[in-house]
Amino acid sequence: MRRLPAMLAALALASLGVLVPATSAQADNWACNDNYEAAMYGYMYAYDDMECHGGALGYTSSWDSDWGNSNGPFRGADTNNASSILNKGSIPVQFFNGTGQDWAGGYACLSPNELYASNLSDNYFTSGAKLNYGISSHRWVSKDRCSAKSWAT
Ligand SMILES: [Ca+2]
Ligand SMILES: [Ca+2]
After folding, report:
1. What separation in Å is there between the alpha carbon of 92 and the centre of ligand 2?
2. Which residues lie at CB < 5 A from ion ligand 2?
3. What is the mean pLDDT of each run of 10 residues along the chain (153 residues)?
4. What's the Cα-to-Cα distance from 140 to each of 37, 85, 94, rounded to whole Å?
5. 29 C-alpha to center of ligand 2: Å?
6. What is the domain extent for residue 123?
């Protein structure tokens, strides 16, 4: 994971702004865009801070039915700790508020063409619960299983 010192990142954004006038929304998403470019194909990533900052809590091409247990790609304090996510796979990732392989309860989906969600505080599970600091499990699903939820980055 490439991390630029804050000063350099600010300079990069400033010079980008000169060449390509960007909306503030685009500028805010710059870090996630950078992470998306660097991400591995077929993988999803989750970060503890917004804008894909703070290092990845985890990344995987597989699933994890409990982000708080001691096995799989997400463990311990990862549960209820993600503030941004990205999907560089070929099918949607379905995120759940709860845990377990019954895959029950509120969920939200991030499809590959959405690329990433840089600020989960704008998003909600189907149950109405906040997505930010709420994700506790995930799996990859076909498009038709995620039609209930569509959301902006
Ligand atoms: Ca786990
Ligand atoms: Ca949760």
Report:
1. 19
2. 80, 97, 134, 136
3. 50 42 52 95 97 93 98 98 97 97 96 95 94 98 75 42
4. 21, 14, 6
5. 25
6. 24-146
